Structures are given as structure tokens and as C-alpha cells.
């Protein structure tokens, strides 16, 4: 058995917390509502990535 590093364990815990958070947010949503949730979240992520890219190109 391999020993997990602290960073790996922190990463796993962070992923689980994120998954739990999303599960709570979408628990009572219909399939259509979940699709819209992910469309909006994806668009927000793309905008943030674009802003970060533009900031790094400037600075």
C-alpha cells in the first residue's frame, strides 16, 4: 500500500466537499434545472478564466 501525501489527502477532501456542496445545491432540482445550473456555472467559469488570461497578458 502506498502512503498518501498530505497534499493528496487535502485534494481528496476538497473534492469531496465540493461534490457535497453541488449535491446540496442541486438536490431538489429537476433535470432541466440541473442542466441550466451547469450551463450558467460553465459560463461563469469561462468568463473567470478569460479575465484571468487577460490580466496575465497585461501584467
Structure, described:
The chain is mainly alpha-helical. Helices cover 83% and strands 0% of the residues. The protein has helices at residues 6-26, 31-58. The termini are far apart.
Structural features:
59 residues; mainly alpha
Order of helices and strands: HH
| Helix amount | over 70%
Query: How does the overall form come out from the CA principal axes?
Result: flat
The assembly state of the depicted protein chains is single chain
Unreliable residue runs: none
Q: Which secondary-structure class do the elements indicate?
A: mainly alpha
Strands, total number:
0
Ends apart, CA distance between termini:
45 Å
List the helices and strands and how they pair.
Layout (H helix, E strand, L loop, with lengths): L5 H21 L4 H28 L1
Summarize the structure.
The protein is mainly alpha-helical and 59 residues long. It has helices spanning 6-26, 31-58.
Amino acid at each position: 500500500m502506498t502512503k498518501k501525501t498530505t497534499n493528496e489527502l487535502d485534494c481528496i477532501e476538497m473534492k469531496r466537499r465540493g461534490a457535497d456542496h453541488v449535491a446540496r445545491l442541486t438536490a431538489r432540482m429537476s433535470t432541466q434545472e440541473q442542466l441550466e445550473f451547469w450551463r450558467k456555472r460553465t459560463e461563469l467559469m469561462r468568463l473567470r478564466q478569460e479575465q484571468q488570461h487577460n490580466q496575465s497578458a497585461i501584467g
